[in-house]
Design a protein that fits this description.
28% of the residues lie in helices and 14% in strands. It is α+β, with helices and mostly antiparallel strands. It has a domain of 85 residues.
């Protein structure tokens, strides 16, 4: 019996791949198929407090005040007072009997998302009041109003 070897086929030149999904690489040069899957690297999303964090996503459809802490890149976003965030008469009656700083904390709870509260939790009272004063100027309101 005579065996005739078939001529080796030339490999086609690889064309550029225009694809954003996972990529499978098959290496058959060693006689076995080794398969590797490489996912497209995810772009790192900014975390709450980081400069590029999208605070508007925490407050869909609302006006948002974004404050950058002095001498840092820490940001925090707060919503404007609106129909959705209007304090009730009972809330305002209780709040008016409190010291100004406690009034600020009460109002902060109304206009801050969970992400915003997590950012300011480590701040000092002085840092919080500095931000709050800028926010009230932006929103054209003041403590006790």
């Amino acid at each position: 019996m005579t065996m005739v070897a078939e001529p080796k086929k030339k490999a086609k030149k690889a064309e550029p791949l225009d694809y954003d999904g996972p990529v499978m690489v098959v290496d058959t040069s060693v006689g076995e198929e080794d398969v590797e899957v490489a996912d497209k690297p995810e772009s790192k999303k900014p975390k709450p407090g980081e400069p590029d964090f999208d605070w508007s996503a925490d407050y869909p459809g609302e006006q948002v005040f974004v404050y950058t802490k002095p001498n840092s890149e820490v940001t925090v976003g707060l919503a404007a007072i609106s129909k959705k965030r209007q304090p009730s008469i009972g809330f305002m009656r209780e709040s008016r009997r409190k010291p100004e700083f406690e009034q600020v904390l009460d109002m902060l709870e109304l206009v801050a998302s969970d992400n915003a509260l997590a950012v300011v939790d480590s701040w000092t009272a002085e840092e919080l009041l500095l931000m709050w004063n800028e926010r009230t100027e932006w929103n054209q309101t003041h403590a006790g109003e």
